[in-house]
Write a structure and sequence with these properties.
Shape: globular
Number of domains: 1
Order of helices and strands: HHHHHH
CATH architecture: Orthogonal Bundle
Mean pLDDT: 89
CATH class: Mainly Alpha
Strand content: under 5%
Largest sheet: none
Radius of gyration: 17 Å
Number of strands: 0
Structural class: mainly alpha
Low-confidence stretches: none
Length: 177
């Protein structure tokens, strides 16, 4: 086995473990059930940059499958599996499209489709169809969707900064090859 191939396997394994740890912590730290799947998805960015989309997608699949069995928090699992896990793999492809407005519109479309799907899957799995509050049932999903869209815009900006810092500062200083 070549040194490059073993390096890819090692990076994939280490980052799979780190993503899975973050996903598991989402059930230990309940208020971080949205932030930790975001961080786990950001971890896949390094795999994407170092080893390419194929390896990053394999890491995403392995973390998603293991999360199904290990992570108790259903919402955190759904956020990772339905969006944040693969978003860092899609981001470079989307950003090759012309026009920032079109890029952001596509990103938000994918996010909202994943959130709506996740909402209905969560309702089906948890069976929370009747909360007893008509106002909550009517308006909470819209507030959640708006909040997630705002959070995503910030996440996307920070992920771009994270990629820039990794490529231009961290990698040249610490990962000289």
């Amino acid at each position: 086995m070549s040194r490059q191939k073993s390096s890819r396997i090692a990076i994939g394994g280490v980052f799979s473990a780190m993503c899975l740890l973050l996903m598991f912590l989402s059930s230990v730290i309940p208020f971080a059930a949205i932030a930790l799947p975001m961080l786990a998805g950001a971890m896949l960015t390094v795999v994407m940059l170092e080893n390419g989309a194929k390896t990053a997608f394999l890491v995403y699949i392995s973390v998603s499958l293991l999360s199904l069995f290990i992570v108790p928090d259903i919402d955190a699992k759904l956020l990772f599996i339905l969006f944040f896990g693969y978003y860092s793999i899609l981001k470079p492809m989307i950003e090759k499209l012309p026009g920032r407005l079109m890029q952001m519109a596509l990103k938000l479309l994918i996010l909202n489709a994943a959130l709506i799907l996740g909402y209905y899957v969560s309702l089906a799995v948890l069976g929370l169809s009747d909360t007893g509050s008509e106002w909550f049932e009517k308006y909470a999903p819209a507030f959640l969707l708006a909040g997630m869209n705002l959070s995503f815009i910030l996440y996307d900006y920070l992920l771009a900064r994270y990629i820039f810092i990794y490529i231009h500062r961290f990698k040249p200083k610490f990962l000289r090859r």
